[in-house]
# Entry
Amino acid sequence: MGYIGDQPRFHRSFQMLILISLVLCFIFCFLFQLSVRTVMWPSGALIPSSSASIGLFLSISGLFYGAALPLFYESLVEMMHPLPESLTTSILVQFFNLVSLILIAVAPNRGDLVNLLVLIVTGVSIIMIACAKIKYKRKDGEQTILVEQNTNA
# Structure
């Protein structure tokens, strides 16, 4: 998705690309939830599964989550443009670290709960991204500079 987001046609479509990635991630996380015993279904899986299908669901889910990460970083840098890129990305990394620390603190006792929390966080992220208004301040600034340079030349 990062490669697609770098194409000129998609320079202002980060939100759409993030939503596509997260929705696909959510679908495969949900399929994983249905294929294992969880908090919601303690008696057993709702759909028959094998190690291969569980591995496939997790791999594809991770693929789409990983595809959305560079777009998250780019969107954050765009929205917080006057600030340095290193500051804005470090804020996001610290947030991810905090969430990971919380999930690790829960994991030793309730692994099935962590699976549900990941699904819930992905769903909430989809809602938050859908409601967000991404302003492409950095791209607008770069275009303004290019127009000024072409006018002065």
The chain has six helices and no strands. The two ends are 36 Å apart (CA to CA). Residues 51-79 form the longest helix (29 residues).
